[in-house]
Amino acid sequence: MARGAAVEAVRSRTAMLLVLAVLPPVLEEAALVAISFHGARGLAPQVTAVWPYDSFHDLRWLLVYHNSWWTFALGLVVLTVFRGLLTAGLTALAWPERAPRPPFGWLVRRNLEVAALALVIISPWAAISVAFSAVALSLYLFASLAPMLVLAPFLQRAGVVRNWWRGLPTIELLGWSVLNFVVLTVAGAVISSTTGWWGVPVAALAGLANGLLWQRTVSAAVLPARIRLARVPVAPVAIALTMAAAVASQTLVGLAAGPPAEWRPPVLAERLPDRVPHAVIAIAGHDSQWNGRLPEDPRVERFSYVGLDRQGRPLPYGPEATHQSLDSSAVLLATQVSELHRRTGRPIALLGFSEGAMVARTYLDKWAQPLPVEAVLLFSPLIQPGRAYYPPAGYEGWGVAAGWELRGIFWLANLGRSVKSRPDEPFVRSVLVNAPFYRNRTLCPVAGVRVIAFLPTVSAAEAPPGEYSRIPVFQMPALHGGLIGQRLAQERVVDFLAGGRVDEPRREYRLLQRLGAAWQAPPLPLALNPVWAADREGDPAITGRICEPR
């Protein structure tokens, strides 16, 4: 009789656990569907995820959606209390029957402490996620996710074990936390693939999985098979290294995106076939430099970020020159296009990489038709950048705390670096201020100009859910910057310049785009930010479509 009652109590507690784990994701997803907020629907399953994915969810919303210091402070308090109470309830209901459970008051206090600690630890990485939304560089997204996987098993112990900072988490705890990451990724992908209210039952299923994983992680933390290094304070070391890595990640992202060096893709290092009728201007990306070395083909010319000499030839430049605003670079490009067209009598083609692609796209938007430019090749363009915002230093506005956190991270990262990147440099600010255009029209057709985008598959993680291009694309597996040196890509460059039709999307690109949906920061609607509200552009964050007027 007593055994039957105990079994019934366990079943009742499990049912309450699953209800508590399901309800918040369902409510968030329903709210997002009700207001047609397409760009953020993939985040809903993370509300009841295990530590630290739940706090990462909270902080990304907060760092985007506050417009003053007092709303940020209020949000921190509300989120800490909400997260502490919710996880205390989940922990109590998930507690294994074989182990004595501490008083609920102790669980509340401990989880409030862990919630506050998690906000501090994860905040730099959530800020980096906001930086990703600002400049749409996938390396920032990947950099922000790795620490979540490292911290997860430590923080899961913190909510249930008194001396959680000592010893290594078990492999079982690590496995359950990785499984939750996979569940959240897949759930976000499925939700971003649905329309209407179909995302709500998917969020419910994800919440159900979260509840079961809370059972497994709490059990693995309370009843570990064996704790290795039981006397060693491993958790503080892991936390300190993780927070320090937020600073080091800026250097790693810079190296991966391309350090200051001579940029010499095949279009500069080789002669073009005679069937190409254009004179070509090649536009390098952020932190590039040029020592004046001429291309192999006299029909090809390097774009200079500092302009032309008295003979109308491009001047050598250093990495700092690429930090100017996109409008300033577009003005220089317009002058160089006119000069090259006058000198050669040929139609002009533009080949831009990363920032260079955005310079070319800005030029097409600012200068009236007809242009001497007939073809534009955009290599690794930023896909829908400017999805988040932070005001200049000294001003308040949406994302003010995120801006100052990024300034601190970049200031530390710049120590000892000869070429310094800053979150307020004119290039970045020009993207943020003109976000309505870049979010909506970067990969849109331009009347009278043939335009194509060369997209490495890694850029799929940059693309938010929904439509991302209405121009032909060529896609192949590569990292940011890795596509432009590929032989196959160069062959397609020549084919396109010679007048051929090139359009080779890859099927896995859409899948990778959806898999990244769960881990992007929620976009800030264009109509909400006064800096953007006057623009007459449609908002892909709401509609999931690009190239549309408001």
What spatial form do the alpha-carbon principal axes imply? elongated
Main sheet characteristics: 6 strands, parallel
Question: In DSSP terms, counting alpha (H) and pi (I) runs of 4 or more, how many helices?
Answer: 17
Q: Give the low-confidence spans.
A: 255-260
Account of the 3D structure:
By secondary structure, this protein is mainly α. It has 17 helices and six strands. α11 (355-366) links the parallel β3 and β4 (373-379). α2 runs antiparallel to α3 (69-94) and α10 crosses α11 (355-366). 51% of the residues are buried. Residues 255-260 have low confidence and may be disordered.
Sequence-ordered SSE layout with sheet pairings:
Elements: H1 2-34, H2 53-64, H3 69-94, H4 104-135, H5 138-158, H6 171-193, H7 199-222, H8 234-257, H9 266-269, E1 279-283, E2 300-302, H10 326-344, E3 348-353, H11 355-366, E4 373-379, H12 400-414, H13 426-433, H14 435-441, E5 450-456, E6 473-476, H15 487-497, H16 507-515, H17 540-543
Parallel strand pairs: 1-2, 1-3, 3-4, 4-5, 5-6
Helix pairs in contact: 1-3, 1-7, 2-3, 2-4, 3-4, 3-7, 4-5, 4-8, 4-12, 5-6, 5-8, 6-7, 6-16, 8-12, 10-11
Fill in the keyword field for this structure:
6 strands; mainly alpha; elongated; 550 residues; single chain; six-stranded parallel sheet
Summarize the structure.
The chain is mainly alpha-helical. It has helices at 2-34, 53-64, 69-94, 104-135, 138-158, 171-193, 199-222, 234-257, 266-269, 326-344, 355-366, 400-414, 426-433, 435-441, 487-497, 507-515, 540-543; strands spanning 279-283, 300-302, 348-353, 373-379, 450-456, 473-476.
